Amino acid sequence: MTDRVFAIPLAYEDVALRTGTGAEVSGLTLEVDHGTVVALVGDGGDEAVRALLGLVRPEEGRALVAGRAIHEHRRPARVLGAVGAHGALPPARTIEASLRVAARLAGVGPHAVAEAAGRAGLDPALLRRRPPAVDGLARRRAALACAFVGWPAAVVLEAPFDRLRETDDVRALATTLREEAARGLAVLFSTSDARIGAAVADRAVAPVGEPVAA
Amino acid sequence: MSSVGARAGLLLWDAAAADLLRIRTGRALLVLAAVCPVLVGITTAGTLQPVSPLALGQDPQAWRLLSTATVGAGPGLALGIVLVAGDHRHGALGAAVAATGRRGVVLLARAAAALLAGAVLGAWTSACALAGLLLWYAALGVPADALLPGGWLPLAGGVATTALYAVCGVAAAVLLRARAWVLPVALAWSYGVDWLLGAKLPDVERWLPGGAATGLGAGGTRWALDAGPSLALLAGWAALLLVLAAVSFHRWELRS
User: Fold this and answer.
1) Cα(A149)–Cα(B98) distance, rounded to whole angstroms?
2) Contact with chain B for residue A153, Cβ under 8 A
3) pLDDT tens digit string along B58-95?
4) Taking CA atoms, which of A39, A155, B52, B243 is between 20 and 30 Å from A84?
């Protein structure tokens, strides 16, 4: 509990890593505090998000969640929620089933499913549907609900706004993230669009290249 | 048990339960369960062709026919592969790693879930083999008593083969980094290379997973070990592949 209240939810300490496209991130130092939304813009953002989740290993430095590497937490899903690339969810399973799987992984009961869906702004009527049967915004809300299910102190999202065509959808998802941040959640997301990074986040950072104004 | 061990055990339990939920709520198990009776039918037909009806009631022939239950190995292998490769494709493997923070737990949980689901698939395949055979015997007027004693052994062998092949499938998918060609390559090995080796190099084949599956189904032949050693051999292969997969999994950079 101490970790969740006092430590900086998300931090990079002089992180260096190589991206899938061969670009190099070096010396990334960043803190994301409670109640703030930070965007990682451009190349290296996705990899930096994945480094926090323990999916890729930095060549140098440390990516920390509540002061520790993700694998050092007893129940990582209760400290950090994750939304995969573009809100990807398995297409053959209903959204409710994916939420129940996430709840099981977080070690919380099925009661958390409806609550998480509500926080993510997901229409309860869509729970019985499969991801291909709902629109892009609802898919991202469903993935966000999976991230919320363990009541984490921070959420990281990989390219949540990319491929979201409608401006209204971008605005709606941004509003949900900002509302959660206002309740104390630390939010970090990657995006290839510098304008979205600047519009949605309190701070936008480019892991590779020139600094971004926000 | 230490508190650290107890916590890791609880995490493993929840991860395995989540994987079983994944299997229950997905389509792969149902699709593969639909394939099994077809495979049993084809294999049974192939086994029956050269045999005269008079020989059918004899115990060794019944044993041979029941050993078709081990054809569940292919679907079992596919189940294990889909459990890893399918989830990786849709980001769920990365989500499980992030949610548990421990790749070893994720791999062990998948293997455990695959073992259990594979056993269910194997039991279904064995039931299909038995049902098909009973129907065939009834049609020919041969008493079903001829199946006994010992008829349960190849049926149990079918369950064990399918379950352990599912574990091998999990390990193979991790070792080959869940690439799109894992499933066709694994099935080509299972149905092609294994068969060829069995025909050309039986002394080598008997020590491979395919030879162990043959031993579990029809044990103690010129081409295979007895059922007990075959079970140990196949379990050993599954364990070895899992250890190799664990090493590979820790080095695997899970990118989108």
Assistant:
1) 14
2) no
3) 556 666 777 788 888 999 999 999 999 998 988 899 99
4) B243
pTM, two decimal places: 0.90
- What does DSSP say about strands A186-191 and A154-157: parallel, antiparallel, or unpaired? parallel
Q: Do the Cβ atoms of A12 and A30 come closer than 8 Å?
A: yes
Q: How confident is the model at residue B5 (pLDDT cuts 50, 70, 90)?
A: confident
Contact A207, A58 (CB under 8 A): no
Nearest Cα residue in chain B from A72: B101
The string of pLDDT tens digits covering residues B231-252 is: 999 999 999 999 999 999 999 9
Other C-beta atoms closer than 10 Å to the C-beta of B27 total 13
Band of the pLDDT at B49, cuts 50, 70, 90?
Answer: low
pLDDT at A203: 95
Asked if B77 contacts B210 with a C-beta cutoff of 8 angstroms, the reply is: no
Cα gap B139→B137, rounded to integer Å: 5
- Give the type of residue at B229: P
B20 touches chain A (CB under 8 A): no
**Inter-chain residue contact B27 with A53, CB threshold 8 Å:** no
Asked if A146 is an interface residue toward chain B (Cβ–Cβ < 8 A), one would say yes
User: What number is the ipTM of this complex?
Assistant: 0.90
The reply to whether residue B255 touches residue A56, judged by beta carbons under 8 angstroms, is yes
User: What residues form DSSP beta bridges with B37?
Assistant: none
- The residue among A86, A95, A171 whose CA lies nearest residue A126 is A95
What is the distance between the alpha carbons of residues B144 and A73, in angstroms, rounded to a whole number? 59
Contact in structure between B89 and A85 (CB atoms under 8 Å)? no
Structure tokens at A40: 């990682």
CA end-to-end distance (rounded Å), chain A: 32
pLDDT at A1: 44
pLDDT digits (tens, 9 = 90+) for A7-19: 899 999 999 998 8
CA angle A44, A46, A50 (to 5 degrees): 110
